[in-house]
Amino acid sequence: QVQLVESGGGLVQAGGSLRLSCAASGRTFGHNVMGWFRQAPGKEREFVGRIDWSDGNPYYAASVKGRFTISRDNAKNSVYLQMNSLKPEDTAVYFCAATWGSSYLTMTSGYAYWGQGTQVTVSS
Question: Which of 52, 41, 38 is nearest to 99 (CA)?
């Protein structure tokens, strides 16, 4: 049973920064992909970015590229989402997700395991 637990959300002013964490357990993490998604009120869950656990190679949605950074710590079985230059439109619940062997790495349907989410609110 894979468990993903996000933390680090909160309220921040526009232009500020937050770092989200996702602690993973229940399965060997080393040949899979971890994704970050977000869902704003009244909107569909959207892809933010992902990281290949084996080589640490990240990929970002255009809306966050250059502002957000995804990293992982193998020893802690954790992935992180560093968010800088935050904007009010970044306000959402942020989720981490895990997948093994999927080809649909920017889609929610490509991920089998999800955390409970953490709220990020950016005030203007």
Answer: 52
Cβ atoms within 10 Å, residue 84: 14
pLDDT band at 27 (very low <50, low <70, confident <90, very high): confident
Outline where DSSP puts E strands in the chain: 3-7, 10-13, 18-25, 33-39, 46-52, 58-60, 68-73, 78-83, 92-99, 113-114, 118-123
pLDDT digits (tens, 9 = 90+) for 35-82: 999 999 999 999 999 999 888 899 999 999 999 999 999 889 999 999
Token pair recorded at residue 32 = 């899979």
